[in-house]
User: Fold Coenzyme A biosynthesis bifunctional protein CoaBC from Nocardioides potassii.
Amino acid sequence: MTVRVVLGVSGGIAAYKACELLRRFTESGHDVTVVPTAAALEFVGAPTWAALSGKPVSSEVWHDVHAVPHVQIGQHADVVVVAPATADMLAKAAHGLADDLLTNTLLTARCPVVFAPAMHTEMWEHPATQANVATLRQRGAVVIEPAEGRLTGADTGKGRLPDPAEIFELVRGVLDRGADASLDLAGRSVVVSAGGTREYLDPVRFIGNRSSGLQGYALARAAASRGARVTLVSANVSLPDPAGVGVVRVETTAQLRDAVVSAAAGADAVVMAAAPADFRPTAVSEAKIKKADDGSAPAIELEQNPDILAEISHHRARPGAVVVGFAAETGDATGSVLDLGRAKLARKGCDLLVVNDVSGGAVFGSSDNEAVVLAADGASVEVPRGSKTALAHVIWDEVSRRFAD
Assistant:
């Protein structure tokens, strides 16, 4: 089935980045109609949009009037994406103005609508813009948080258009959910940890693990697509920032603990998808440890790292917050993967535990995953092998149900 995407482009310098977003939609087989504003055409001309989409482009309601484009485009869309969405466009959408083809399309669309704002920091932070964003979110639109970084000129701050590839992934998540694409996390603040921590032996060597961060990033992206305010605590991950997500970067388990505990103080849910190192050296050499001439290896004394999951589960800063842990197990003489998972769930005190069988290195670095989600109340959900995004949405489904409780 062909997915009909309307790509609205408003008049900001980031309009040129929407060309990359358009390319990703078309190369994925989607039928894309580009609806730019007149101001957007000052930045990127109509021939560019027509060539990339394979369709004629206009910003006027008077073009092809017999086809009633100001009604038909929105009515037949499966998703409308406005990228970039300027402060002016957000204001018009929030107040129901309809003075061009794009604003008319927004009023007639009955499908999911995603806004990817881009503007200067002061404009984004202005109370009027924030009120408009709140209004749109209340009505069910997904308004992505802008990224931080270099803006027009020498300015730097929050207001940069998120990476087009990440906007595409977020929109794909909205489309994949179909009729279930509700904003059930709207108004919720969530924390997700991702990646693997490093414990340094000296300036160049460390103890670490194989976690890629892919599952944690999928969880953050999925939460943002469902309307949540997301803080992603990222440990040594080389992936682009998910669209609409605030990222805090850490290296060690101690840094991960501090960042998670700080963010959890105002969170409705914390999902610990990161793989913290269980042990760290009792001492870190200030200089690189040299090889011994006699071939002997240095003795390294280790101590346990703090148990972050147990701490935030047993000492919840926010009453009613949902805590989710992960268990990468292989099974041993003491029990099966699920036996060890159930024991860990009871020991840690979290509400949900996502159990992965990682025998033979499965899961690490893969785009797919399979798991069993165990609940403290005894329930369990088996998630067959599929994308890590699909697993992420199952996890958020379970979290959302516990909010309802």
The mean pLDDT is 90. The CA atoms of residues 140 and 266 lie 23 Å apart.
